[in-house]
Amino acid sequence: MKERFFLRYKFTALLFSSIFILSGCSLRSAEPITRTGFYFDTIISVTVYSEADAACIDGAFALCGEYEARFSRTISTSEISRLNAAGVLKNPDASTVDILETALTYSEMTNGAFDVSVAPLSVLWNFTGTNPSVPAAADISAARSLVDYHHISVTPDAITLQSGAQIDLGGIAKGYIADQLKTYFLEHGVKNGIINLGGNTLTFGEKPDGSAYKVAIQRPFAESGNTIAFLETRDCSVVTSGCYERYFETDGTLYHHILDPATGYPVQNDLYSVTILSDSSAAGDALSTACYVLGKENAIHLLQTMDGIEAVFIDQNEQISVTDGLTYDAGTGKIGWK
Ligand code: ADP
Ligand code: MG
User: Fold this and answer.
1) How far is 303 from 324, CA to CA, in rounded Å?
2) Is residue 73 within 6 Å of ligand 1 at its C-beta?
3) Helix residue ranges, H only, 28-91
4) Which residue minimizes the CA distance to atom 24 of ligand 1?
5) What is the pLDDT of residues 12-29, one digit of tens each?
6) 57-12-124-136 Cα dihedral, nearest 10 degrees
7) Is-contact 181 193, C-beta < 8 A?
8) How confident is the model at residue 60 (pLDDT cuts 50, 70, 90)?
9) Could you report the per-residue pLDDT of 91-103, keeping only the tens digit for each?
10) pLDDT value at position 5?
11) b/e string for 307-338 if b means 16 or more Cβ within 10 A?
12) Could you tell me if the CB of 118 is within 6 A of ligand 1?
């Protein structure tokens, strides 16, 4: 229970710290209107700049509810739960096909560092449970042997799982949904806004006074409002994966929710977090998880093969480094584009 409360507290802190920073706008700009909700086991918020735009937020939250009911691994009636239970799902919703195809693309691109079939391990570790503990080594090894995205086949008519594979969209769903919300807002004539799904931030347009949004990166393990760096951006997704987001500690070891499909254990490296800057938030979400798994050096190699994607690494000494397309000023904490 304590852990649970602690996690909620952290999400709240994360959210309010970003709102605090994001709403520090100039006198000339319209006042931001921010609404919050609770979806995907986290606090989400949407910020827009006029009452007319705010009228669309209810529709956006309704979409969140629909996606959650379809994609959740823990809601027994979701398409993903039914697929995991039966091994096959006939006539899936088009969005389920779409997110799975996207997830498979990133599973392939990252050679399984991001593996959307990680569910047997997620179920076993159960980081969202009330009292998570370290599973038995034999159980980890058994679950690990089931994780292989090659065992998923997707067509518009059916999704099929072979050899005990199970789906967990936890590493990509918030990014995918953020992209869908942005599309929804643009279709409804909302040109400027900030979508924040549990710290997974997607900005679009700009502030009404023409200035950029300021998006902060949370200082790992720190209290509310304590940010370590920031960037000024217009249309950009900013997604962070880190070991400080969901974890428990046993005998002095920290066990966190980003799992290495190769070992079955939480990833162990010298990183506190990886933040991905990209156009697509689905890409940012999958790649932030993958880059955390890969570690800084391998992540940089991977990202060099991709266009328009940059990363910010924070190591265990709180040292910040950035990929080639970015600048970082340690004095001000500002991250910029070259
Ligand atoms: P957050 O959910 O805090 O934004 P991530 O995007 O890094 O963080 O996603 C972590 C979640 O992704 C885990 O809770 C789990 O559901 C899933 N996951 C964990 N390890 C992997 C992995 N190697 N590949 C794909 N998904 C993963
Ligand atoms: Mg992710």
Assistant:
1) 10
2) no
3) 51-54, 57-71, 79-86
4) 114
5) 444 444 444 444 333 445
6) 170
7) no
8) very high
9) 999 999 999 999 9
10) 35
11) eebbbbbbeeeeebebbeebebeeeebebeee
12) yes
Average pLDDT in the 153-175 region?
A: 98
Compute the 3-state secondary structure of the chain and give helix, strand, coil in percent, each to the nearest 5. 35, 25, 40
Which H or E run includes 151? none
Ligand 1 atom closest to 198 (CA): 4
Q: Which atom of ligand 1 is nearest to the CA of 170?
A: 16
Asked whether 285 lines ligand 1 (CB < 6 A), one says yes
Q: Measured from the CA of 286, which atom of ligand 1 is nearest?
A: 6
Ligand nearest to the backbone CA of 44: 1
Q: Ligand 1 test: best mutation among 144, 149, 168, 247, most atoms within 8 Å of CB?
A: 168
Give 287 Cα–ligand 2 centroid separation in angstroms. 7
- CATH top class, domain 3-51+193-337: alpha beta
**Residue percentage of the chain with pLDDT more than 90:** 88
Cα 41 to averaged position of ligand 2 atoms, centre (Å): 14
CA of residue 122 to ligand 1 center, whole Å: 9
Q: CATH 3.10.520.10 region(s) of the chain?
A: 3-51+193-337
Ligand 1 neighbourhood includes 170 CB (under 6 angstroms): yes
Q: CA 153 to CA 177: how far, in whole Å?
A: 22
Residue 245, pLDDT score: 86
**Model's pTM, two decimal places?**
0.92
Lowest mean pLDDT among 16-25, 176-185, 242-251, 265-274: 16-25
pLDDT tens for residues 189-229?
999 999 999 989 999 999 999 999 999 999 999 987 799 99
Tell me the pLDDT band of 85, cut-offs 50, 70 and 90.
Answer: very high
Kindly report the protein residue whose alpha carbon is nearest to atom 16 of ligand 1: 170
Mutate to test the pocket of ligand 1, among 78, 201, 289, 298 (most ligand atoms within 8 A of CB): 289
Among 33, 27, 22, which residue's Cα sits nearest to residue 227? 22
What superfamily does domain 69-171 belong to in CATH? ApbE-like superfamily (1.10.3980.10)
